[in-house]
Amino acid sequence: MFRYFGPPGTGKTTTLLNHVEQLLAEGTPPNKIGYFAFTRKAAHEAKDRAVARFGLDPEKDFVFFRTLHSLAFQLLGISGAQVLKEEHLKSFSKRVGVNLTESIEAVEDEGFVTFRSNHPIMRGIDLARTTERGPLWAYNQMDLDITSYHFKLIYSEYEKFKKKDGLKDFTDMLIDFSESPTIVPELKVVFLDEAQDLTPLQWKIAHLINDKCERFYIAGDDDQGIFSWAGADVTRFVTLDAASEVLTQSHRVPRTVWTMADKVSSRIRKRQKKEWSPRPADGSTRFVQDHYGIDFSDQWLILAQANYMLNDIGAYLKTQGYFFERFNSPSLSKKVRNAITSWTHLTTGKNREISLSEAQNLYGHITSEDGRLQRGAKSLLKSAHEQDVFTLGLLHEHFGLEADGTWEEVLDRIKPEDRAYASTLLNKGVDLNSKPKIKLSTIHGAKGGEADNVYLMLDLSGKALEQMAKNPDDGYRVLYTGITRTKENLVLKMPENWTRGWQL
Prior knowledge:
Layout: E1 2-5, H1 12-25, E2 33-37, H2 40-54, E3 65-67, H3 68-76, H4 86-96, E4 104-109, E5 112-117, H5 120-130, H6 134-141, H7 148-165, H8 170-178, E6 189-192, H9 200-211, E7 215-220, H10 234-239, E8 243-246, H11 255-265, E9 284-288, E10 300-304, H12 311-319, E11 324-326, E12 329-330, H13 334-347, E13 354-355, H14 356-363, H15 377-382, E14 389-390, H16 392-398, H17 407-410, H18 416-427, E15 438-442, E16 451-457, H19 462-470, H20 472-483, E17 486-493
Parallel strand pairs: 1-7, 1-8, 2-3, 2-6, 6-7, 9-17, 10-15, 10-16, 11-15, 16-17
Antiparallel strand pairs: 4-5, 11-12, 13-14
């Protein structure tokens, strides 16, 4: 086993893909190469880069470029019907008398979609299993408003619930895989990226894979190990018995930002000491009291420790006419944007056409009053064929459209606040079909990302402060990860209260 320590921007993924290129040049079949990443995003990025570089088929050739979860799903032969869904979590909530579906998210991977509850009780159950340390240990790590007895009871009932209906959740896939060494594929060379984020359960699988391959390369950075709350074991990556190399040249972080990052990393007590260099550009670092007056016209990554901290700046960006993304969703909904662009397209040229789906979305934003849309017009569209296209004249003549005018006059079902925001965006020349240059995210959500400009809030939630008191290393790893997303300019927003923020 060989380990790469990769500080921010030093090219961990590129280094691993260079090895892949060499293997292919030597004649190694691509289906004998495994590349596994912590997240679906990272696995797909590696596959996309490999496909672009080597010109091979992404599905046939790179079959083992995936997450460990999707590998387990594939090799265990789990069907989609067995995967835990939202309705199952609702049913289980009723069974135990606790609403566990208040914070639920869909998790999509290769071949399956499952649902995961972010309720503290469910996170505690998952922590118990991924760390393999049991429910009582997990309970003591969590701040739960139930007794340990009640938690262990819900834990036990959850296992019974799944077993009764033959259901598998996200973690079950890994548990079953770890207990089935005979199904592990025999690969020639395996690469594992972002290894600092592996849980003990995932490490068990990594060792099973290592036992059946000729060479095993892992890459990561312990200073960016920010998922200990989810069971990740940074220590295992650092103490692994393996030959090692430190990647020393960052291609992302400029000198002034590197200086700040180095200051923060020096506060992490338990870490692998490593020397790395910034790229040859000064960049800039400055402190501000708030976001007012900052020009957010260029590419920005706006980061906070907790989601709620992004609410004020998100509202501000809307008032100023900035187009941005939050929770991977643009600040103006796709349906509203498509309705506006469809109407603008139809009315700014002769015989311009839109598709059936675009016409249906357009009608959904027009009321059947005031001479805009005939009653029953939406039903007329239902008789059309999927491949049909529609001009403005055709919609007027045969499909009940009566309105003329600007989109502001016609699309009256758009909410007033969205109408005002869209008008501001268009007046500023924003292309509503473009990808926003501004992204709002938690630091955890931005891991692996980068931007020319980073606005980082130094405020900490009450829960984060408690965690910092218990384990300062974890807190400084989060701050370090946020700082090192920066390619050019770093703006640090000072905390509202210095006793409730990161200390620099």
